[in-house]
Amino acid sequence: MPKAELHLHIEGTLEPEMMMTLARRNGVALPYASVEAVRQAYRFSSLQDFLDLYYTGMSVLRTREDFFDLTFAYLEKVAAQNVTHVEIFFDPQGHTERGVAFDTVLSGLTDALDKGRRDFGITSKLIMCFLRHLPEEQAFDTLKHACRCKEHIFAVGLDSTETGHPPSKFARVYAEARKEGFVPVAHAGEEGPPDYVREAIDILQVRRIDHGNRALEDPPLTARIVSEKIPLTVCPLSNQALQTCPDLTLHPLKRMLAAGLLVTVNSDDPSYFGGYVNENFVAIQQALSLTEDEIATLARNSFVASFMTDDDKAAALAGFDAFQARW
Ligand code: HPA
Ligand code: ZN
């Protein structure tokens, strides 16, 4: 099926092979002796446990070429999975903190996205994330960079350590970002409580919730997300790998669909969690015995929930419906 991916951290597509290659290319020391040793380390007990490795892994990314290679490798992979549109998160603070210039990161990403459009016809938008474990002051510094590059950055997001870092911590920087024209989204309800989802909606005024699984614990909140048609970008293999839902047969996705939520399936950090978007579809279909209609709804939702222009969205949905009719 044609589909969009809406919850993908580009730094989370760094495959162990590329990690070792870039470490060698850039003379970066890693705590792993081999590709196998990297893979061995991918057993996570929590979000924080994963994030520690994720930040270690991204330390090999130093040059424009590194960011280009990383992004183009992702696009090549998902072109083969019939992904036609991507909305990609990146974490500039994970790089500027290490002395890599913001413009080095962004130019590598945008050059690869341009080539992905030319070579595969994949359209894209970039979502710049603030790291929520860092102070709001540093998010403001990052926003200043984004304001110089508005033609390349469509939205702002919030990721990293959720517990103890509620959306309200970033109220002022999101107000400023909205004023500057950036569309707000945020990770919420991955590990954090339903109140964090409520804060993301009320205080950050997000247009999409990333994950949002724990909203289901709060029926009035769930009803509100349904009636306001706020999309949730759900990531099954991530939920399994980070132990928020270790047994996928107990995953809430089917209940989310039944509740009328606008949910989509995404890969989050595919290199770390064991699969790209199609592997997420297959795993969750098998675990929950999803029907063909449910699977088609999930794929169609990816266009509905996207930030494409109205015309592009209408064309993508018409294409999807034609595909489904033929199939
Ligand atoms: N959750 C929060 N922050 C992240 C993630 C995630 O799954 N991946 C990369 N940063
Ligand atoms: Zn994520």
Structure in words:
The radius of gyration is 19 Å and the shape is globular. The termini are close together. The longest helix has 19 residues, at 102-120. It has an eight-stranded parallel β-sheet with strand order 1-2-3-4-5-6-7-8. By secondary structure, the chain is an alpha/beta fold. The protein has helices spanning 16-26, 35-41, 47-58, 64-79, 93-96, 102-120, 136-148, 171-179, 194-202, 219-227, 236-241, 253-258, 270-273, 277-288, 292-304, 310-326, and strands at residues 3-9, 83-90, 123-131, 155-159, 183-188, 208-211, 232-234, 263-265. The mean pLDDT is 98. The chain is built from 16 helices and eight strands. α1 packs across α2, α4 packs parallel to α6 (102-120) and α15 (292-304) runs antiparallel to α16. The protein has a single domain (3-309), classed as Alpha-Beta Barrel (TIM Barrel). Bound molecules: hypoxanthine and zinc ion.
